[in-house]
Amino acid sequence: MNSLDQDHLAENIIWREMLAFTDTFRTFYSPHVVHAVYTELSQERGRSEFELSHKEPQVVENSWIDVTLTFAVKDGELVGRCTAVVSLVQVDGMWKIWMVRSWLESYEGHGHPDEPKSGHDNSNIQSEDHIYDAIIAGGGQSGLGAAGRCKALGVDYILFDNRPSIAKQIGAGYKDWAFKHAINVQEATSVDSASWDGANQLWTVSTSGKNGDQKWRCKNFVLSIGTGHKTPSRPAWASEHEVKRSGFKGTLIHSADYHNANDFAGKRGVVIGTANTGHDIAEDMANLGMDTTMVQRGKTWVIPGQFLVYAHQPDYNLDKPVAEADREQITQPLKVLSELANKHIWAGIRANPKLWDDLEAAGFKTERYGQLFNHLYGRFGGHYIDIGNCARIIKWEVKMKPEVVKELTENGLLFEDGSTLDADLIVLCTGFEHDFRKDAQGIVGHEIAAQMDDFWGLDDEGEIKGYAKLAGHPHLFYFGGEARIARFYSRFVALQLQKLKLGWPIQPYRGP
Ligand SMILES: Cc1cc2nc3c(=O)[nH]c(=O)nc-3n(C[C@H](O)[C@H](O)[C@H](O)COP(=O)(O)OP(=O)(O)OC[C@H]3O[C@@H](n4cnc5c(N)ncnc54)[C@H](O)[C@@H]3O)c2cc1C
């Protein structure tokens, strides 16, 4: 790596870069591109010599060897302390690099995102005159993660969450987290709007809630208000107009409004949709002794929950610190992670075909070899991680109706094939609209939302769009998502905020 030549790179070389060289998240492919970008940025960033880290080289998947290195880059007056993992394979008797991962760990002399400032001084709630380095809207796992890392890095922030009590929502673990990281939070407070004053380079953030209407000022704004699960998506036949027209005598709701079906015990329940939410609600109905039917339109990929446990166990287990496991997993290019997940999960499916055979015999249309990462990062769902409902379907305790709904009727549903299904309760498990910008627009307004990048889904390089980086505005970030990436990327949100606080702009590499 200290004198990298294009010949050292395997034909399928892939380089995942996270803030060390590029000030953003990029994945580069092909020996020519990787070599050219690496050479250019090594020079531009005054990269130091690489040194072997204390970590022993590791054989991975019986296929390659990972060697962990440390290095430094210069960024203005900042010195970025970085890690790289270089993966080596033998090609025609020569060791070649087929994968490189590089990421920023910390800025020298400015703390480390993994080293919390503990204590209970979580009361830095200032007056309107105070200018925070950052305001974080939303205290789910993402907002809380970013907040903890900000505290560790000396970024002066405040977090608002509109729920009355985060602890009640998240559970006991929250208290430990809040204490460990001295989270500066005002709960029961909704962030209503944020406007950008370009002349003074400041956000004015308006909140309402337990302390009435308040205004706050900050240099940077982080939206971590969820990942676009706010607007329920309803099929055309279940629009308000159609429900009224049909004269349906039962109850029809979207899963977003479902809490339980206790009032319908022993009655007829219909679930529209066969992904995770649909199965969970069908199981709930069946547990209440309801006559339960799931309506399925297309094929659904099903994976037993246990398969995911097996797939993750080599990294996530009681013997390995979570921070180390995250480094090993989350720094991998998503394309590689995806191939590895497919390899392990599909092997499990091939070896145990009975579950899928039995589901099909019970009328459930299965997609046998689905792509986990497409579901998680592309479609935002559409699969079922089986935690019990498959057994109910196989035993016909939950019945299947694999037909397309034509319309709602007085008594239930009419299908395209002319058949009908009567129902007392219909729950639409048809997902949500996923344009995060619509949610953001409610806060930052139309003009700024229009310049924001897409959020979620994969770009051409395989990076998550808009994720944990500047969101089309030089002082706006948006952030959210599942536990592991929320936990790991929170360091990068905080490091970028710290860099801005220290007076250095974020300049994402746009080449080649
Ligand atoms: C059915 C379902 C099952 C899932 N299962 C899993 C799973 O098993 N594992 C997993 O990792 N992920 C799962 N996910 C994804 C899950 O939603 C995310 O992992 C997690 O909730 C994302 O955390 P977050 O902090 O980004 O957003 P959220 O948890 O949605 O937190 C956002 C917070 O912001 C608050 N907020 C929103 N607007 C405002 C405002 N204007 N002002 C102040 N506060 C505001 C909200 O009240 C909330 O507290 C699931 C999602 C769904 C829908």
TrEMBL record:
Keywords: FAD, Flavoprotein, NADP, Oxidoreductase. GO terms for molecular function: flavin adenine dinucleotide binding; N,N-dimethylaniline monooxygenase activity; NADP binding. InterPro entries: Auxin_biosynth/cation_transpt, FAD/NAD-bd_sf, Flavin_mOase-like. It comes from the Eukaryota. Its cofactor is FAD. Belongs to the FMO family. PANTHER family: FLAVIN-BINDING MONOOXYGENASE-LIKE PROTEIN (AFU_ORTHOLOGUE AFUA_4G09220). This is FAD/NAD(P)-binding domain-containing protein. It comes from Zasmidium cellare ATCC 36951. The lineage of its organism: Eukaryota, Fungi, Dikarya, Ascomycota, Pezizomycotina.
